[in-house]
Design brief:
This protein is an alpha/beta fold and about 290 residues long. The chain has one domain: 3-Layer(aba) Sandwich (Rossmann fold), CATH 3.40.50.1820. It is about 30% helix and about 20% strand. It has helices at about 75-80, 85-95, 125-145, 160-175, 200-215, 235-245, 265-270, 270-285, and strands at about 30-40, 40-55, 60-65, 100, 150-160, 180-185, 220-225, 250-255. Helix 3 (about 125-145) packs across helix 4 (about 160-175) and helix 5 packs parallel to helix 6 (about 235-245). It is globular, with a radius of gyration of 17 Å. The protein starts with about 30 loop residues before the first strand and ends with a helix. Mean pLDDT is about 90; it is low at about 1-20.
């Protein structure tokens, strides 16, 4: 049995993942919800903590699932607050979406097994990490579809860092009703201090992305930056090429350098990425 070793951080700083804490965003009807954990499609009796935002009214509204990145150490993962992405969610709610931001298995108050670990840098288990995280996102999708104010036939996915990696995996799972998905700086195994811009075994990530392209049919937008210190642009181009050559549908946007590390673009660079995502969502009917 493989023993976990140092887990490389997949966010650029604490501010990229410490989204939680009051006050609640009353203007977008913020609530905290519990989502049943599913493994192999079956409920386990465990629950994920999640944040829900919604427009005023009864709906039914389309919905969006936002998937967060990965804190570096077990202590950091245990202490991460409830994920919110309140400003990004506010923008989506004002466009008419219900937004759910799950704190996935292995993080914060959700806790549980670290199903998204890659185990080690020399021989990372990226397929296992994707499978474990995808199950959490699919559970959030199932929860959303059961709500009376939600239109189960129209939803989007957005993910940052490991959340972007998982967004590609969920797109490959092709859940009914998925209209489109956005991958912000998606990947796994990055470490800007030890090997900036070069993730552990990028070739294994290429294998996973290429495999995902075989079954992913919803249109995607992939956004990376020229100065991402976790996943440099050459890797993003390679992964994208593998994905689309296998049949996936994805537009790749490599944006100019952002701050000291473009990996934080989704968190703090809304003014930069919003026009790009706005145009993409309009192209798919939102």
């Amino acid at each position: 049995m493989r023993a976990p070793v140092w887990i490389f951080a997949l966010i650029a700083c604490t501010g990229a993942w410490a989204q939680g804490g009051p006050p609640f965003a009353a203007d977008i009807n913020e609530t905290v919800i519990d989502i049943p954990v599913r493994v192999n499609g079956a409920e386990t009796g465990e629950h994920m903590v999640a944040t829900l935002f919604k427009p005023d009214g009864d709906g039914p509204f389309p919905f969006a699932i936002i998937s967060h990145g990965r804190a570096g150490t077990p202590v950091e993962r245990a202490q991460v607050p409830r994920w919110r992405y309140s400003e990004q969610s506010r923008w989506l709610v004002r466009k008419g979406f219900v937004v759910i931001v799950p704190t996935r298995r292995g993080y914060g108050s959700t806790g549980g097994a670290d199903v998204e670990t890659n185990y080690n840098c020399a021989n990372p288990a990226y397929r296992d990490a994707m499978t474990g995280g995808v199950e959490s996102v699919l559970a959030a999708i199932s929860y959303a579809k059961a709500q009376k104010f939600v239109d189960p036939a129209r939803f989007i996915l957005i993910g940052q860092s490991v959340g972007g990696f998982l967004t590609v995996g969920v797109t490959a799972a092709a859940p009914a009703g998925l209209v489109a998905a956005v991958n912000f700086a998606g990947g796994h195994g990055g470490d800007p201090m030890r090997h900036p811009g070069v993730p552990c075994r990028a070739d294994k990530l290429l294998e996973v992305y290429s495999e995902a392209g075989k079954t992913a049919r919803a249109p995607m937008l992939w956004i990376y930056t020229e100065n991402d210190q976790f996943f440099g642009p050459d890797h993003a181009r390679s992964w994208h090429a593998g994905f689309i050559s296998s049949g996936g549908r994805a537009e790749l946007q490599i944006l100019p350098p952002y701050q000291a590390n473009g990996h934080v673009l989704f968190v703090s660079g809304m003014a930069v990425w919003r026009p790009v995502v706005e145009a993409f969502l309009q192209s798919v009917g939102f």
